[in-house]
Specification:
binds zinc ion; 14 helices; two-stranded parallel sheet; 307 residues; six-stranded parallel sheet; single chain
């Protein structure tokens, strides 16, 4: 946990939620209603990932793969009662030692959604450049600012920064991608080529990011790629249509929600609860069980005072 007032306040609030039995209630609700718990993270430490896995196992959850989820959504009317699905976004270098090792150790399925360009050319993710440039006071824009502007302008700013800042790559290498794709526990999905905000791209760019990332990945790992996760969770009907045309069979959003029967008709809009890397584990227990609500008054208050 990163020690700051926001996280300490949120930690106490999470302990309070656990103490009053919210987790137990959420667990029996999901088990009784046959809801599937769906979680995702980006670059968690080995300790955090293992803690999450152990917590789910200890609490009677059963890990299922994305392939199995797709099968359930298409073919089955009764959902399993205690299923959990774990996905990882971006394709960080540390995923190789932190995620793959633990997934293999506990024999649990994990999908890793990878961004092909940083993997193939060894470059850093685009937001790493923006963060660094912002810290060094080269630009006023934050990463969040750049997520709001149209993609051509984001690229112009990024190219300008790349002339001034050099960064080491933070994604896994092509060799590592190929190696982990052969692990029994790991499935590889696409997270586009360059991780743009798809809804800020032109039709051509959005389609290319979706379609070509699939082709690139399939050529690398020599397996069919059917899973996709929207960068930053941004998508529209246009992206869903491109996914369908490109041959993807399932896609994940960042909507914080359980998977229920309505998702049988929303196979390109599968929700996931976020597990951030820098908050307390108590907060993450609340998050992965769906108890944590960003809209709750107390969380809003904590964010306002201490963010
Ligand atoms: Zn991402």
């Amino acid at each position: 946990m990163k020690i700051n007032l926001r996280n300490i306040g949120a930690w106490f609030y999470a302990l309070y939620l656990i103490r009053i039995g919210k987790i137990k209630k959420a667990k029996s609700y999901t088990f009784n209603e046959n809801l599937i718990t769906s979680v995702y993270s980006h670059n968690p430490s080995k300790q955090l990932f293992e803690k999450c896995v152990k917590w789910f196992i200890k609490n009677g959850y059963e890990f299922i793969s994305v392939e199995k989820l797709k099968e359930i959504l298409i073919n089955e009317n009764i959902f399993p009662s205690s299923a959990v699905i774990f996905t990882i976004d971006d394709g960080w270098k540390n995923n190789v030692s932190n995620i793959v090792t633990i997934a293999e150790k506990y024999n649990i399925p994990v999908s890793i959604f990878t961004t092909t360009q940083p993997i193939l050319n060894g470059d850093a993710f685009w937001w790493s450049y923006i963060k660094k440039a912002h810290e060094n006071k080269l630009i006023k824009n934050t990463v969040n600012d750049l997520k709001l502007i149209n993609d051509e302008n984001r690229i112009k700013i990024l190219e300008h920064i790349k002339l001034k800042i050099k960064l080491k790559g933070d994604a896994m290498s092509k060799e590592e991608l190929i190696k982990i794709s052969k692990c029994k526990s790991i499935s590889i999905g696409s997270h586009t080529i360059t991780h743009p905000i798809l809804t800020k791209c032109t039709d051509t760019k959005s389609k290319e990011e979706i379609l070509e990332s699939k082709t690139i990945l399939e050529n690398c790992i020599r397996k069919k790629v059917i899973q996709f996760a929207y960068p930053n969770g941004n998508y529209s009907i246009r992206e869903m249509n491109f996914l369908k045309e490109s041959g993807y069979e399932i896609a994940f959003t960042t909507e914080n929600s359980y998977i229920n029967k309505s998702h049988k008709n929303k196979i390109y809009e599968i929700p996931r609860f976020n597990i951030p890397e820098n908050v307390s584990f108590a907060e993450n227990i609340c998050r992965m069980t769906g108890v944590w609500s960003e809209k709750s008054n107390l969380v809003t208050m904590i964010k306002k005072i201490w963010a």
